[in-house]
Amino acid sequence: MGAPAAAPQRDALPDLPACSGRAVRDLVHGPARPARLLSVHRAAGAAYLRVEGAPPGRDVLALLARGALALPLGVALAGPALPDLPPRALLGRGVLDLGGVRVRVVRERDHGVRGPLAAPPPGTAHLLPAPVVDAARGLAAALAAGPGAVQGPVRGLVGLGPGLTPAGDDVLAGALVALRARADAACGGGAAGVAGAAGAAGAARAAGAARAGSTRDLADALAGAVGAALGRTSALSAALLVAAADGQALPEVAAVLTGAPGAVPALLRVGSTSGAALCLGLRVAAAAGRGASGGCGGTGRASAGEAA
């Protein structure tokens, strides 16, 4: 009877190349830390892991098969199926060690919004539960009132609704991404660029920077209020909210913001209510932007009803 086969050496484990989102850069390339499997959804090609010792809201990673929804938290594989997933893994220094296989990150993807912004999407309130719509209107009114008014409405939205990503969270994620994108679009080259500009072009850029500052104040206030309420929702949804606050979004959301053909129907196909709730959040942000200054800052006010 022959000797039993030796266990494979760690250096001999197969590597699966992958591309990670910028939102999980610190998790992927930081020190090696244990990760616990939260859930597996093989039909959707997604699995979620929570990394021990990472800050709340920045501690969840999505392992994605080819064709899965391109979450900004994702480590996306080239293959069409997920590998076998143990209950515990090790993540860090660019590698997710799953025991029998290693996922090695070789590229990074920025999920930020690029390009000129389009008009807000059509209303989707009729596709969502009344409590979510009412809470979204409350957020729109708070944003119109100014940065200091958002904390209460945010607490009413975080964790509102069932599922992995409650609809209230999706509304907030849409609003966060859109406000960041609108501030960046208005700012153009940023404050340093404005300071060095001259003439009519310089004046236009300076006006844009002032508008961006007002919109960025709203974005910062909204992000701060959401960050203070992360304990009211799931670990996955909290991480997606933090990514949205950083301007990282689903490609379907970015496509709607930039007016790509067919973008709205594609976003509405995301989840049972997620796409509609994200669209509503984009409208809330657009109304807040117009209310702040007829574009991004100033003295106008948008109506809460218009946002829905």
From TrEMBL:
Pfam families: AllH (PF11392)
Superkingdom in the source lineage: Bacteria
Name the UniProt record assigns to this protein: DUF2877 domain-containing protein
